[in-house]
Amino acid sequence: MTIRVVIADDQSLVRTGLRMILDNADDIDVVGEAGDGAEAVALVADLDPDVVLMDIRMPEMDGVEATAAIAAAHRARVLVLTTFDLDEYVYAALQAGASGFLLKDALAPDLLSGVRVVASGEATLAPTVTRRLLDRVVTGLPAAPPDDRLALLTGRENEVLQQLARGLSNAEIAELLFLSPGTVKTHVGRILTKLGLRDRVQAVVFAYESGLISR
């Protein structure tokens, strides 16, 4: 099945470059381009794409506000585009419902892989980048009080969530906790269900906001 993508970026040159990469893939079709967040939200409503590649800093409506609007009302999943020095808005975008992020200097195969992963209903959050992202973005946040929802988790689910929030992949969590990858995947699914979260990216955000992971 072809993955339908909308690109949202205020720089036409960036949009052109992204379109060239995506259009070269047999299973991806760029169905629209937006120069700001408001236009992106409108295109999503009109075109019902599978994935939105969303820049953060845009005029009129930024990527955070647009992500929140799309996540609240549409099935499209948002993949945030950011620079390596990390906008202060990235954490807010993930909190708003983005399913992951990519660096703007990502290689073409990584971009294509990220779009496919997000379209499949999963989240893309590169483990090595996750650690750096969260270490930097959450540093300035005030300490969060414990979240009552943590009591819904079993001891093992709590352990899995902690390692997930530190950026470990399912395979790495399985090795660390002496579990099979399939068991870890099951635990992650139960964690998302119990906490009412959309994907593992939101689980990472929850772990920091709830105080489970110290900053």
UniProtKB/TrEMBL annotation:
Q: Which residues form the Response regulatory domain?
A: 4-119
Q: Does the keyword Transcription apply?
A: yes
Its domain of life?
Bacteria
Q: Which residues form the HTH luxR-type domain?
A: 146-211
InterPro entries given for it? CheY-like_superfamily, NreC/VraR/RcsB-like_REC, Sig_transdc_resp-reg_C-effctor, Sig_transdc_resp-reg_receiver, Tscrpt_reg_LuxR_C, WalR-like
Q: Supply the alphabetized keyword list.
A: DNA-binding, Phosphoprotein, Transcription, Transcription regulation
The Gene Ontology biological process annotation of the record reads: phosphorelay signal transduction system; regulation of DNA-templated transcription
Q: Which residues carry this modification: 4-aspartylphosphate?
A: D55
Q: Write one Gene Ontology MF term.
A: DNA binding
Q: Name one Pfam family in it.
A: GerE
Q: What is this protein identified as?
A: Two-component system response regulator
Originating species: Amycolatopsis japonica
